[in-house]
Amino acid sequence: MTVTADELRERTKKLLAEHGFADRLAFLRARFDAGLAWVHFPEGLGGLDAPRALQSVVDAELAAAGAPDNDPRRIGIGLGMAAPTILRFGTAEQHQRYLRPLWTGEEVWCQLFSEPGAGSDLAALGTRAVRDGDDWVVTGQKVWTSSAHTARFAILVTRSNPDVPKHQGMTYFICDMHAPGVEVRPLRQITGEAEFNEVFLTGVRIPDANRLGEVGDGWRVAQTTLMNERVAIGGHALPREGGMIGIVAKLWRDRPELRTPELHDRLLRLWVRAEGVRLAGTRLRQQLAAGSPGPEGSGMKLAFSSLNQEISGLELELLGEAGLHYDDWTMRRPDKVDFTGREAGYRYLRAKGNSIEGGTSEILRNIISERVLGLPSEPRVDKDVAWKDLPR
Amino acid sequence: MTADLLYSDVEDDLRASVRSLLTDHCEPAALLKRAESAEPYDLKLWRALAGDLGAAGLQVPEDRGGHGASAREVALVLEELGRSVAPVPFLGSAVLATNALLASGTDHELLGKLASGAATAVLAVPLSSGPGGFESTVEVADGVLTGRVGTVADASVADYLVVPAGDGLYVVESGFTVTELVSLDLTRRVADVTLSGAQGTPIATDAAAAEALTAALTAGAALLASEQLGLAEWCLEETVRYLKGRYQFGRPVGSFQALKHRLADVWLDLVSARAAARYAADCLARGDEDLPVAAAVAQALCSEVAVHAAEECVQLHAGIGMTWEHPAHLYLKRAKANQLALGTAGRHRAALATLLELPA
Ligand SMILES: Cc1cc2nc3c(=O)[nH]c(=O)nc-3n(C[C@H](O)[C@H](O)[C@H](O)COP(=O)(O)OP(=O)(O)OC[C@H]3O[C@@H](n4cnc5c(N)ncnc54)[C@H](O)[C@@H]3O)c2cc1C
């Protein structure tokens, strides 16, 4: 039996009646325990086995009451990627241990996937994991790791067998970021701050109990993470002008002296595209709710990233003289990406990462053309070769 | 109420019947032969579609001779007609003339005749007319209409005209001549209509007439987006099919990334176009006050997406795409003509500037 929207509304009202907001964490824990954290998760793990789309009913009710939220922007990797992977491949003990503090934000997660030699070609990674009794000993280097400096845990993909073709010899772990041998170094980026890091793993011991999925099956587990990463990005319901286009539209309305015919034309073109993408996101969520996820999901991130880049570029041009300023080049280590809390120059620079993080636009186009349109893949030279024999 | 952007089961069934009818009648070779014949419209297909399937009366209430469905179903039929560039007067009769009659609130018997497919009518305006700012070229005195209207879509097979003239909207049954023009779009013809002392029956006057005309053109724009969507879908699917089977340099050309990425972009355009077209049709069906924005967004997006898809279709088919035998040109011609129809993308964006308070 599935939960209806009305029942969820009732349960949310009950939660609100029984818990105040004074202790933010206590409220978030109670919300998790009531199954109102992510309603599509199983009972006992923060959900009620309800359709994913009904989360909006709960969120609307809580927002109206001014309830604290778990600041999804700060814990996005945990929510969007670690959680669905743990749910699908984790053991009962792992579910109990990790999901609740992940959701409340008590424990922040990061993603130790990319390496200096393995970016788009993630399956080429070389961080070694060698079995030693009940533990694995992990050595290697990861890079571009967002939030590694605040993270308590990481999802980690390693090479456990170099003698087989690259996709077959990988194993997936949960890594304790406080374990001996884990070293995090800030990597300053285009915006001046250091949101991502280099992570050095030197003889880090990971108990076998922290493995997710079978030995050698890490690629399949990682696929789940990556798919969820892309869906998570297109997942939020936005009102009209809810995204970056709203910032520029407001600027246009407030500052008539900035207007030129050429910028007007570009603004309207981008407005139309943004509205089209917004409606496509709504349509995608309606499809998911009806239980038939369409291939649109993989395209949403692609559409969002190019829109964000063009709109933030337009914003700077519109600002003219003021567009020549920058708000702050200080090297800082932020704990979230804050598009609206910073100025136009930051938005322009940070948006450049949207078409790189979580799979580049080129890789996403490959996915769409091959998996959605069914076009043939490029001839491959790396498929039947042992990882250790690949050129790199 | 929130918009439903999906297709219902009923709509899926309707799609299946329309598609199977069109598959039988719109085989490319036959389409081409017909386009060059003395009978460019397929009236047998039109009777089957309008009469047997009831497609012409979907938007008309049951008590006025129709099927009491909604603009959503009309949009769906248009998607299928776009996919097959079918030479039938659906846009002129079942969309533009029918919406003008519906919006005028008249109980003229013509509505029932159009709904059943017993008669065909057109709205006597140039196909390029967008919603708003229309100036009639027809004069009226004591119910007698005189004047000329250029480039009216589907007029060559119309039994009736719905004519904006002076300060009213009139139904005209006789006393007009139609001169076929050589049309860019081979499967939807435009013609000049000359009225010389035609007797007109007024169905709306003054503000009501102007409102009905705007409503019809807005509905037309909202719905034409679905035809453009269907057309673009065909172009993408056909190009993907061709590139999988065409070998050069020892590989299917569809495995070259330069081409795959272009097709992925067409696909991505279509995802937005589909959502925008569905939203416009749904707003029209529900009488949502957001309709003017929805229609303008849908037209501004879909007309450019359709032209882009059709242009890519010709380019990626290369030599074969440039031939008269291959149907790609029929789609390009329809797509480009549609881009000019019922207001260009630029005019719809200008309309949005006003609607959204984003002035120049
Ligand atoms: C802001 C930001 C945050 C990030 N956060 C994280 C994180 O938290 N954890 C983590 O693990 N990683 C993270 N990344 C890394 C990110 O996933 C990689 O940067 C990305 O996958 C690309 O890899 P690369 O940088 O090595 O580029 P490369 O793979 O070296 O790509 C170079 C260029 O080649 C193109 N290219 C590569 N292969 C192909 C192909 N087959 N076809 C066509 N073009 C191709 C790419 O599109 C790109 O343009 C982050 C990146 C950014 C920018």
Record the SSE blueprint.
The complex is a heterodimer of chains A (392) and B (360).
Chain A: H1 5-18, H2 24-33, H3 55-65, H4 76-89, H5 92-104, E1 109-112, E2 128-132, E3 135-146, E4 153-159, E5 170-176, E6 182-187, E7 196-207, E8 211-212, H6 218-233, H7 244-254, H8 261-289, H9 296-319, H10 344-351, H11 361-372
Parallel strand pairs in A: 1-4
Antiparallel strand pairs in A: 2-3, 3-7, 4-5, 5-8, 6-7
Chain B: H1 9-25, H2 28-35, H3 43-52, H4 71-84, H5 90-104, H6 110-116, E1 121-123, E2 138-141, E3 144-153, E4 160-165, E5 168-172, E6 176-180, E7 190-205, H7 206-245, E8 247-248, E9 251-252, H8 257-286, H9 291-321, H10 328-340, H11 345-355
Parallel strand pairs in B: 1-4
Antiparallel strand pairs in B: 2-3, 3-7, 4-5, 5-7, 6-7, 8-9
Helix pairs in contact in B: 1-4, 4-7, 4-8, 5-6, 5-7, 7-8, 7-9, 7-10, 8-9, 9-10, 9-11
The structure holds flavin-adenine dinucleotide.
Q: How many angstroms does the end-to-end distance of chain A come to? A: 53 Å
Question: Which regions of chain A have little confidence, pLDDT < 50, spanning 5+ residues?
Answer: none
List the total number of helices of chain A.
11
Q: How many beta-strand segments of chain A? A: 8
The proportion of strand residues of chain B reads 5-15%
How much helix is in the residues of chain B? 40-55%
| Sequence of strands across the biggest β-sheet of chain A | 1-4-5-8
Largest interface: A-B, 43 and 42 residues
Q: Average pLDDT across residues of chain B? A: 96
Helix/strand-derived class of chain B? alpha+beta
Using the alpha-carbon principal axes, give the shape of chain B: globular
Overall pLDDT of chain A: 93
Shape of chain A: globular
Radius of gyration of chain A over all CA atoms, rounded: 22 Å
